[in-house]
């Protein structure tokens, strides 16, 4: 069996690439939370990366993974110590890696990186039958291109990976990946047929069309109830309530587009443009969500009809960051992990998301501090303490919601079997609905609003205090 030799830096690079690609791909998939087409065409141009991570897919028994390669060429990277005679194109090719094998691959690369001189060289994923299922090597690709299809005998989540075990060699090629499972057509079965059709959704995401459709229906009903509540209490409805209604509308539209997106992908492998609508409505939903949190946190339209300069500064930071985050979301979702710079874009996306989550906390803390100081000085302790309690509760819920959807769910995804990854979407949507329900219930329009209403006892105390003050004066 042929093996390639490369230095410690190359082995470390391969190890880091594999680990980062898997971790970042998982984080990005969690944040995007919508299935994209599993028929993809990727153009690789002068790429010398030892590992190129294409796609991951949850297969059932009998699933298929197809890779089509066109215009495959290679060249020496400038400054390479190799010559054309030294290059072995059989050490460059595609493999399938089961998700459970990634720790073993990292262990092997770390072992050879620790002592590259021992054992005759470094670890080459392409030549390791123990860890990877070979698909096609560049030495077997004719000038006109080739298509290779592998049938999955053992169900698992597999990743299509290109392995380049020739240090200093750049690869250029057009790659089309197509992954799907086979299932019996229900309509054909009812008419006595046994036709098998392709299902382009991974095993763990097949319930998503129904889940997203249900979420869209729930938020549409939520929106109808909110409009009815605001109409009944139109005398006490504030501008913030209209913004909150718009948030519900775009959340429902985003979920509906996600349902259509996954439904088309399940049957055709492509989203037929529904991903564009998903990104558009997701953009407005994301901007409105953080805007509502900031506006409620500052007490706008409840405690005061204006925003202070520092509150405006927070909005001027959060809204552009949300615009940037949604643009990065499009880049991450549409380019895929095979593109160079994808990991860097994903890191920027995660950083922007964290900054947004931190920024919306400050207005709530400022309001809590202001109410605490006011309760000690303005003689309206009961009312201010009631507002203070509500703001503290709002703060804890916001922190808990952001912490759960960004961190806890990530750990949940890492531990979850690939067959049940739809459970992550259910958990996130459930947490989001609970968060929306809390916010909308506590800040709904009502006559005796906790922010504005002063009870009879407190009014009597304030009047008595006023008479005492006047007498003393």
UniProtKB/TrEMBL annotation:
<dbReference type="GO" id="GO:0016020">
    <property type="term" value="C:membrane"/>
</dbReference>
<keyword id="KW-0472">Membrane</keyword>
<feature type="transmembrane region" description="Helical">
    <location>
        <begin position="314"/>
        <end position="332"/>
    </location>
</feature>
<feature type="transmembrane region" description="Helical">
    <location>
        <begin position="276"/>
        <end position="302"/>
    </location>
</feature>
<keyword id="KW-0812">Transmembrane</keyword>
<keyword id="KW-1133">Transmembrane helix</keyword>
<feature type="transmembrane region" description="Helical">
    <location>
        <begin position="344"/>
        <end position="366"/>
    </location>
</feature>
<dbReference type="InterPro" id="IPR053937">
    <property type="entry name" value="GOST_TM"/>
</dbReference>
<dbReference type="InterPro" id="IPR054103">
    <property type="entry name" value="CAND6-7_N"/>
</dbReference>
<feature type="domain" description="CAND6/7 N-terminal">
    <location>
        <begin position="43"/>
        <end position="181"/>
    </location>
</feature>
<feature type="transmembrane region" description="Helical">
    <location>
        <begin position="240"/>
        <end position="256"/>
    </location>
</feature>
<keyword id="KW-0732">Signal</keyword>
<feature type="transmembrane region" description="Helical">
    <location>
        <begin position="422"/>
        <end position="443"/>
    </location>
</feature>
<feature type="transmembrane region" description="Helical">
    <location>
        <begin position="210"/>
        <end position="228"/>
    </location>
</feature>
<protein>
    <submittedName>
        <fullName>Uncharacterized protein</fullName>
    </submittedName>
</protein>
<dbReference type="Pfam" id="PF21904">
    <property type="entry name" value="CAND6-7_N"/>
</dbReference>
<dbReference type="InterPro" id="IPR009637">
    <property type="entry name" value="GPR107/GPR108-like"/>
</dbReference>
<feature type="transmembrane region" description="Helical">
    <location>
        <begin position="394"/>
        <end position="416"/>
    </location>
</feature>
<feature type="domain" description="GOST seven transmembrane">
    <location>
        <begin position="207"/>
        <end position="450"/>
    </location>
</feature>
<dbReference type="GO" id="GO:0005794">
    <property type="term" value="C:Golgi apparatus"/>
</dbReference>
<dbReference type="Pfam" id="PF06814">
    <property type="entry name" value="GOST_TM"/>
</dbReference>
